[in-house]
Amino acid sequence: MSTPAKISPATLAKLAKLGMHHRSDLLLHLPLRYEDETHLTPIDTLQPGETAQVQGIITHNEVTYRPRRSLICRMEDNSGELYLRFLNFYPSQQKQLAVGQNIRAIGEARMGYYGMEMVHAKCRAAHDNTPLNTSLTPVYPTTSGLAQTVLRKLINNALEVLPLTDTLPESLRQELHLANFGDSLKLLHNPTPDIAATALEDRSHAAWRRIKFDELLAQQLSMRVHHRERGKRQAPKLVAKKTLTRQLVKALPFALTKAQQKVLHEIEQDIEQSHPMQRLLLGDVGSGKTIVAALAALQAIENGYQAAFMAPTEILAEQHYLKLKEWLIPLGLEPVWLSGSMKKKDKAAAVERIADGTTQIAVGTHALFQASVSFKNLGLVIVDEQHKFGVQQRLALRNKGKSSQTVRGKPVEPHSPDSNISEPHQLMMSATPIPRTLAMSYYADLDVSVIDELPPGRTPIVTKLVSDSRREEVCARVRTACGNGEQVYWVCPLIAESETLELQNALETHQALTETFPERIVGLVHGRLDNAEKARVMAAFKSGEIHLLVATTVIEVGVDVPNASLMVIEHAERMGLAQLHQLRGRVGRGTAQSTCILMFQQPLSELARARLKVIFENTDGFVIAQQDLQLRGPGELLGARQSGVAMLRFADLTMDEDLLEQARRAADMLLRDHPDAARAHLHRWMSNKHDYLHV
Ligand code: ADP
Ligand code: MG
Question: Which ligand has its closest atom nearest to the C-alpha of 557?
Answer without folding.
Answer: 2
